[in-house]
Structures are given as C-alpha cells and as structure tokens.
Amino acid sequence: MTSLAHAQPPRRDRVWKNRVFMVAMLFSMFVAFGTLVVLLVDTILTGWPALDWKLFSEPPSTVPAEAGARPAILATLYLGFLVLLLSVPIGVLTAIYLEEYANRSRWWNRMIEVNIQNLAAVPSIVYGILGLAFIVRGIGIGRVVFAGALILTLVVLPTVVVASREAIRSVPDSIRQGAFALGATRWQVVWRQVLPAAIPGIATGSILALSRAVGETAPLIMVGAITYVAFNPELFGPYTALPVQIFNWTKQPNLEFQTLAAAAAIVLLVIVLSMNAVAIFLRNRYRKKW
Amino acid sequence: MRVELQAELDALEAGFQEAGEIVLRSIRGVIDALRTQDVELCDEVIAFDDEIDARYLALEKQVEMTLARQTPVASDLRLVLAILHSALHLERVGDQCVTIAKLTKLSSHLDTKRTVVESLVDMGERCAEMVKVSLSAFAARDVQAARGLHQLDELVDNANRQVFHEVLGYVHDAEALEWGMRQITVARCFERIGDNAVDIGEQTAFIVTGEFAEFTDASHDPRPLV
Amino acid sequence: MTQMETQPHIDSSRIAEITRGLDRSEIEGREKVFSVTDLAVSYSGKVALQDVSLDVHRNTITAFIGPSGCGKSTFIRCFNRMNDLIPGAEVEGRVLYHGDDLYARDVDPVEIRRRIGMVFQKPNPFPKSIYDNIAFGPRVLGIKGSMDDRVEQALRQAALWDEVKSRLKDNALGLSGGQQQRLCIARALAVEPDVILMDEPASALDPISTTRIEDLMHDLKRDYTIVIVTHNMQQAARVADMTAFFSVLVDEEGAARRGVLVEYDATTKIFTTPSDKRTEDYVTGRFG
Fold this sequence. Notes:
The structure holds 3 protein chains of 3 kinds. Chain A is mostly helical. Helix content of chain A is 74%, strand content 0%. Chain A has helices at residues 12-47, 53-57, 70-101, 107-121, 124-139, 145-169, 173-181, 186-215, 218-222, 242-251, 255-285. Chain A is globular, with a radius of gyration of 25 Å. Chain B contains 6 helices and no strands. By secondary structure, chain B is mostly helical. Chain B has one domain (2-220): Methane Monooxygenase Hydroxylase, Chain G, domain 1. The mean pLDDT of chain C is 89.
C-alpha cells in the first residue's frame, strides 16, 4: 500500500535547484521590468517641466526657454507616413509572391527567402551607409526627408515581409482549397480570400515595424537628418527627426536642454507606445478562431 | 480485427450448436418413446420443449443485440442471419417432436403394428442423422455435406410414403385405422423434421456462397406428396 | 385528409431501388460522367496510386473506401484537378469527363472546377458572411442574374435556408459544424455544377449532422452526380450506389506504399458478397 503520506520526501537537492531557478527567474524579470520602469519614471520626471505646448509649436533654438521640437515632430510623422506608404505595398506584395506564387523547389526563391531573413538582422547603421552611398549621393537627391524615408523603408521592409508572410501563412489552406474548388483563379483566391483574412496580421506587423522605424536614429544621422532645423520639413528638403533632435539636445552642456530632450523623449515614447497599442488591439480584435 | 464482434459471433455459433444438441436429445427421446410406446417418456419430451424454446429465444435476443451493436456485414452478416433462420428451424424440429410425443400418447391404448412402428423408428433415426449432419455441416461450412442432406431427405420422404401405403391396408379394421391415421401424422412430422434439416443445410450454403437457393424446389416437385 | 395522403410519398420507380438497392447493370446503363483508365498519381516521383480504371455514372452516388494511405483522397482530387495545386504532383493515365480528356493541354482547370464542385473533410467556410460565402463562387465566375435568388436557391437545396434566412449577414464561422458543412455544400451548388465531389464530408460531424448530410446527398442525387470519399464504411453502405474499395500495396522492401483499386461494384454487392478477399476482410473489419 502506498499513499501520499508515506511517499518519500522529495530529495533535498531537487528542492534546492527549484528555489535557485525561481530566484533567477524573478531576478531576471526584475532587471528587465525594473529598468524599464526606472527609465520611464526618470524620463517623465525629468521631462515633465518642459512638456508644454511650446515643445510642439516652436522650432529649436539656442535659448532653451524658447526651444521646441516642431520640425522634428513633424518630420517624424512625415517619415512614418512615407515609410508606411512605401514599405507596406512592397512588403505585402513580396510576401504574397513568396507565400502564394513562389515554387520553393527553385533555388532563387529559396535564396530570396534566406536573404530577407538575413536583411532583418542587418544593423540599421549599415543601411545608413548604404543609403548615403546609393540614395543620397548615388541618385543624388541629397539629405532630404524622402531619402530618409527610403532608408527607413529598407530597414523595416524585411520585418514587414516576414510579418506579412506569417499573416498570410496563418490563413488556413482549407480557405484556399475551398476557393480554388469553386473555380477561382489564383489571383482571385489571393485577392478575395487570403489577403482579406490576413489583413489584421499584416497591419499588426506593419505597425510594429513602423514603430521601430520611428525610433531609429543611426541611419538617419548617416543620411543627414541634420540636427538644427528651424523650419517645417518638406518632402525634398532638409529635415531632422525626433530621435535625432533628442540626441542633439542631450549632447548640449546646458542642463535645460536635457530637460527638453527628456520631454521630446516622452513625445517619442507616446507615439511609439500608442502605435504598439493599436497593433495589439488589432491583433486581439481580429484574432481568427479557425 | 474486430475482437468483440468475433467473440459475439463465436458465442452465437456455440449457442446454436448447443441448441442443436438439445433438439437432438428431444428427437432421440421421441424415437425411444415410439419404440417402447412409453407414455412417461412422451411427457418428458413434451416438457423438454420449454428448454428448446428458451434456447431459441436466447439466440434470437443475441442476434438482435449483435445486429444492433456490431452491424456486421458480408460473411459476418450472413452468419448472423443464417443462425437466426436455422435456430427457428431447430425450434420447429422441437415442436414436431412434441407433436409426435402427443400422438404417441394418444394412440398408446390402441394396438400397435410392429412393421409400421419399425418404419417410423427407422424414419426417426434418419431424421436424427440428418439434423446431426446439418449441424456439423453448418459448423464446418461444408456445402457438400449440406447438399447431401437432400439425398437423405428423399429416403425420409420415401419412408413417409411407405407408412401411408401400409396404413391404407387397415381400411377394413376401424381400430387399426384410427391408430394408423395417427401414425401417418407421426410420419408426416418426421418428414417435416427432415425438411427443416435440409433448410439448415441451405443456410450453410448461404453463409458460404452468399446466395440463397433451395436445394429442391418443393413447390415444383413432380412427385406426389405421399 | 385521408389516410393515404398522410403517408410519405414514395416514387414508385424508386421502390425497387429502396427495397433491393441498385444493381450494377442498372447503374452501368446510365450515362458515363467520368471514365478513368490506367490512372496513376505520384508526388515528387513517389507513386501514391496506380492502375485505377473505373467509370462514374450520372445521378449516382459513388463511394471510395479503403484504409488510410490507400489513395482514395488523392483519387477524388484527380476529378477536379486539385492535385495540380500540389507542387510535384503528377497524374498519368486518362480521365474522361463526358468524353473529354480532363488533362488535355487546352483544358483550363478553373473551368473544370466550375463544373465539378468539391466539399472538404473539415467544413471550410470563408471568414465572411453566410451570404458572401454562397455568392463568392458566382462572383468570381462572373455569373449574371439576381444574386439574392441564387443564394436562396443554393441554401434551400442544401436544406439550410430555414435555419439561416434571418441571419444571412452573420459570419459563417458562427454556424455549427454541421451547418457549416451544409453551407459548404450550398456554396458548391451555387455555381450550378454537374458533379459534387465530397472528401469525407461528415467525418468531423456529430451523428445527427451526419444523418442530415446523408439525407441531403440522397436528395441531391436526383440532379447531380456525387462522388464521396469516406472512411466510414457504414456511411458508404448507407448512401452509395456504387462502391470502390482501395487498398495499400506494400512493396517487398516494405518501403514504398501505393494505393490500388481492389474492387468496384454495386454497394449492395460490396457489403454482402464482395468478390475479393481483401474487400471482405476490410468491410468485416478483419483488415490488418
């Protein structure tokens, strides 16, 4: 007869291992979450005094009390919009090709796949160098908003492609089969069934990619988001971006500029976090149950 | 492999063969009663019929269960159907035995004619043999043996006719005639037992070939019935 | 109302069919819809099915049964060229559809699938409204006329109209499994096909939904030719007029397994007195 009461107590080293592991997990979580909280709290506390309408309405100035980030905020919104406009169609069409049309037994298709995955892992500064060489100087359009948007598009495109492919792949094959069996052509199947069903996933992935683009600094510094721009950006004009503006202010010795940088950082955080929120909302709202 | 179905089929078949054994005991009892004109033995045979009926009802119930739960098809279905039919034939053989026992009792106060009784006993033996053959052919799925029953049945039919003509000779002796008339019915009963054995043989052929065919078409037999 | 009028009406011509099943010669007297000769299907060079020759006749239900891996689903997909969608799939032999070679060079698989509808194992309604599910086929094919009428007719034919008429705009994924499958049948009917292929249409459904699908098949048989793959032998026995039994052939090394057609005959024959020992062993459950 055995019973729980008479069962052997667990061996001591197992109990000990269990506890060590538990502590390690809690510690890791604390490091990750704690850092984020400290960062947010510190930024908000530092930036709060400077977070006023002036920040949105005024251009930067050498006088901290008069300085704002209007051109940078506007440029960041421009960039975001342009990146979305460029990366989503290209990314989605690439994903459609790879998922629905490409024959995986052909070497070039496999090569494209591998390379897109590699591109997603390339450091963004490398894109910056590339952009400087080919877009800013190669095509010669100069250090303009459009050039920045092109570079950021390159940075996020692999992510958009991968996310769109995920979304397209998650549309069950039975939907395609059902549509084909009714006499639909491949194009009709993709356009009328697969794509509509994949849109929530594509949107989620694209927005997440975009929020990454909006926060990017390195490639923009390479392709010339110059640090002092006192006027509103134009498509083919010089510009700065919010991250670059923040970077610039933090370099200033004057402490008041640090406050401004923190305030601008709050704005950037709000933009990025609200984009992520939209993405999460979309994902939960349209989660398919098949 | 459908283990449960196979177990049920095996049980059905075993039950059928047991019922066969019991019916054979009834036939042997009625033959002995006839030979010895033993009224007590007749009563035993009559009482024994309840046992046969119980066996038949049990088989019928079992078949119903198997059909409902296992939905057998093809050869399995044929086996189940054949057992259902054959069990009914066995039950009828039992009923014939009861009739013979009753007739033997009824005529026990009358003089018996040795020759007729011997013919009837002979007929009975043949019938018992036929039932035995039909059961063993069923168990062995032996179509050849099952078809052989038809030849045996002709002998029984002949004996039946013989008894009839024998009794015709009693026409001037009222008491002998009464006794004789009863014996004609006894012969008729044996003849029916033989037919039932042939029917069981036909079921055997149905199991094996999947086609039901009467070994002889009684309705088109050119020979007179008696 | 007299007693006679309340009795369910049975078409006198169907009495024979109901009481003893159709026999082979009666079915073979009907027009040939498909005529398959020496068909073999391989995936990336591996043979999945070979040596299949059989005819499918008009207004009959033809069932394909057999153990898994016997190629019955592969086979049914040859009739509407769904195998074309699988990379590396190759079909050899001949499939005639009303006398025309389905695999001829100039034949458009899209046109074939318009005439030969298909219903799948798992109900696969599109994640759209009930109405749009039915309308999808006619729309992609550019069929003219009143869509509302067409949708209603298809739903009525699939015995689903009364259950969904008040909520045509609701998402089809909200229907029960059995309703979804009838929706898929209605969807196939909406393009007015000639043949309906059903690949294990009730295997994901509860018994009552299964019964409804089977009843529906009996009704549809009058206007359509139905081919069904089923792993439920009793279902084949209940609904089909003709049954083909496929088996798996394992080569000497035990490596390659390919499907072969073992026996094709009237369903009544297959389930009472099959000619082949392998069929008998399969239908009686003594397989393997």
